[in-house]
Amino acid sequence: MTERRTVYLRPMTADDTAKIVAWRNRDFVRRNFIYQELFTEEGHREWIRTQVEPGHVVQFVICLSDGREIGSVYFRDIDRAAGTAEYGIFIGEEDALGCGYGTAAAHLALAYAFDELGLDRVFLRFLSDNIGARISYERAGFRLTDRRETVSTMQGEREVRFMETDRSIWKAQAESRGSGKGDGDE
What we know:
The chain has one domain (7-176): Aminopeptidase (3-Layer(aba) Sandwich), CATH 3.40.630. Helices cover 32% and strands 32% of the residues. It has six helices and seven strands. It has helices at 17-24, 27-30, 41-52, 101-116, 131-140, 167-176; strands spanning 7-11, 58-64, 69-79, 84-91, 121-127, 143-153, 156-166. It has a seven-stranded mixed beta sheet, sandwiched between helices. Helix 4 (101-116) packs across helix 5 (131-140). It starts with 6 loop residues before the first strand and ends in a 10-residue tail after the last helix.
């Protein structure tokens, strides 16, 4: 993908395994994931082999315009027949949190989902006490649904909320931002 403002996405490769595992295992990242077990390089290579290579997952590394890599964004459980996928993101560099990079990455990722993958709807799940994530998702164009679940995490029982956006809503929001692609940072 091409660079847009302060953030660009590049496809994740097997060479990114050590970096992805290190980011994903940081406490400030793990505590905001539903699945909180430690990742291993072997497990990540298996993810690439069984999920990325067959096209069930598309994953990118989030890069700043100076080339610094700060996290990852992905679509999982891609169902091309139904036109749906689940969105996920994590910022693995603590000093990059709260800077708008996640929202900018989401704009780029959603442009890819709707324009390149041809999806019609993208949804996500997040732990309801992760307020920063919710704000970023809303800025990216996701809207809360009524769906809720409860999960057991290392911190105890926590509520999971669902958000989604679809092609027509997202395109209208992108046009109102003036870009037509939904890119940029906020």
